[in-house]
Every structure is written in structure tokens, then in C-alpha cells.
From TrEMBL:
Segments for region (Disordered): 1-30
InterPro entries according to UniProt: Acyl_CoA_acyltransferase (IPR016181), FeeM_cat (IPR054597)
Record's compositionally biased regions (Low complexity): 18-30
Organism field: Rugamonas rubra
Regions of compositional bias (Basic and acidic residues) in chain numbering: 1-17
Name this protein carries in UniProt: N-acyl amino acid synthase FeeM catalytic core domain-containing protein
Domain N-acyl amino acid synthase FeeM catalytic core: 61-208
């Protein structure tokens, strides 16, 4: 994949098509819809990011998760229950969910990853640090552009880092997907893979520091021309200026 070309095309197209993030920076992007749903970014292509905290929103995300997990051969039926420490985010195209992930905030109950990776996670639970995890990630492969996926990860960063004060992110991934997360977002693998009973498949535990994410956004976000040879998602993230508008929008709707 020619990532530089993809980055230039998608970001320049976004700027030309109603510049949604610029509007967000001015406090104009996104409208509150039905109760519990906040549309954060939309544009002329009807692409949006949603923070959905309704039964209907979680059900739509669950349908996508089960369809994509079954396609990958993962076991089980996966549902999203209401939980104050878990936030479901979706990317939508013309109103349909095309991508979803769930952000889990550490609490006295711990993270889902603690079930099999407690020893690997324990050293990160230190004063001044707050942990979180991404679970239930699924994206419709028919969406060819990488921009919606990058935007969804960026939204999860804002929710975790700026709204909940998290410093460290974990994710459990199948071994065949490990290189994707390492190359596109900068995750680091911790230890050897173990069997994840929730999907009956092997999984690596990956870790990412939000300090690193912030550094990459400040360097590359919204500026693909400065990213020659960079294959990561960060040139497809919003710029620091655009981030400020999105963070303000999230805080308004807490």
C-alpha cells in the first residue's frame, strides 16, 4: 500500500469536503441526536463518528462485531452490555455502522485483559498512571479508505487520554494482526501469546503509551506532506488544532 499517497488523498479530500474537523474546531461540527448518541464528525459523504450509549447503538455495533468475528473464525456470540466503565464508539457511513470499538477504563474490577494477562499488566498500575483497553474492534472490509479507521482510533484516544485521563492503552490481538497494530499505531508486544477464552483463539497483549500517541499526532496529525515514508495511521489523524475542537465537543456531552 502506498501509505503516503493514501494519506494525501484522504486528508486533502476531507479538507475539500466540508472540512468537518475545521468546523469542529470552531465548535460547529456534530449534533446531538437521539438520547445517548452524539454525532461528533460528519461531512458530505455522510461519514461520522458516534459515541453511542443506547441499547440500539450497542445492538448495531454487536451485529457488526459478530459478523466480522464469524468471518474471521472466532467463536462465541459477542454482545455489548451497559457498563459505566466501557464506552462504545462507532464509525458510520450514511447512517450504517461500518466500524466499532469499545474503550474500557480501568476500575477496581480491572480490565478484560486481566483475565489472562494480569501479570503483564500489573507493572503498569502505578501512581500517576491510568490504564485502559480497546476491545470488540471490528471494521467492515468493504470500506476501502483507511481514514474512517484512523478517525475511530483518534476518537478513542481523545476519550481515553483527554476525558478519562488515561496514560496507557492495552489491546489483545490475534498473532496474525500483531504487525498491523505495531506498524500502524506503534504498539509494543508484551510477552508470548496466550489462549483468549472469549474468542477461543491465541492472543498477544500489546501496549501503547498515550505520550507516544500525542507526540505522533503533534508531528504528523493532519499533515501528510510531512510524513514521507511513514506508513502509520498518524498522518490520517486530525491535527492538534482540530483535536481541540473535538475534545471540547466531547466535554460538552459528558
Amino acid at each position: 500500500m502506498n501509505h503516503k499517497s493514501d494519506a494525501n488523498d484522504t486528508v486533502e479530500q476531507r479538507r475539500a469536503e466540508a472540512a468537518p474537523a475545521d468546523a469542529a474546531a470552531a465548535g460547529e461540527a456534530g449534533e446531538a441526536g437521539e438520547a445517548g448518541v452524539v454525532d461528533l464528525v460528519t461531512n458530505n459523504r455522510a461519514f461520522g463518528l458516534r459515541m453511542a450509549d443506547t441499547v440500539e447503538g450497542r445492538n448495531k455495533a454487536s451485529l457488526l462485531i459478530n459478523r466480522m468475528y464469524a468471518w474471521r473464525g472466532y467463536a462465541g456470540s459477542h454482545t455489548l452490555a451497559e457498563d459505566p466503565n466501557r464506552i462504545t464508539l462507532t464509525a458510520t457511513d450514511k447512517g450504517d455502522a461500518v466500524g466499532t470499538l469499545t474503550l474500557g477504563i480501568d476500575s477496581p474490577l480491572g480490565l478484560l485483559a486481566d483475565e489472562i494477562f494480569r501479570d503483564e499488566i500489573a507493572p503498569y498500575r502505578q501512581p500517576g498512571r491510568k490504564l485502559c483497553e480497546i476491545t470488540k474492534f471490528a471494521f467492515d472490509p468493504r470500506v476501502r479508505s483507511k481514514e474512517p479507521m484512523a478517525a475511530l482510533f483518534h476518537l478513542s484516544t481523545l476519550m481515553a487520554r483527554d476525558i478519562h485521563g488515561c496514560t496507557d492503552l492495552f489491546i489483545e490481538v490475534n498473532p496474525r494482526h500483531r504487525a498491523f497494530y505495531e506498524n500502524k499505531l506503534g504498539f509494543t508486544s508484551l510477552g508470548e501469546p496466550k489462549t483468549n477464552p472469549r474468542v477461543n483463539a491465541p492472543a498477544y497483549l500489546l501496549w501503547l503509551s498515550y505520550a507516544y500517541v500525542t507526540e505522533q499526532i503533534n508531528r504528523y496529525g493532519g499533515n501528510p506532506h510531512a510524513a514521507a515514508g511513514n506508513r502509520s495511521f498518524y498522518p490520517l489523524f486530525y491535527s492538534p488544532r482540530e483535536e481541540k475542537g473535538l475534545i471540547a465537543r466531547l466535554r460538552e456531552n459528558r
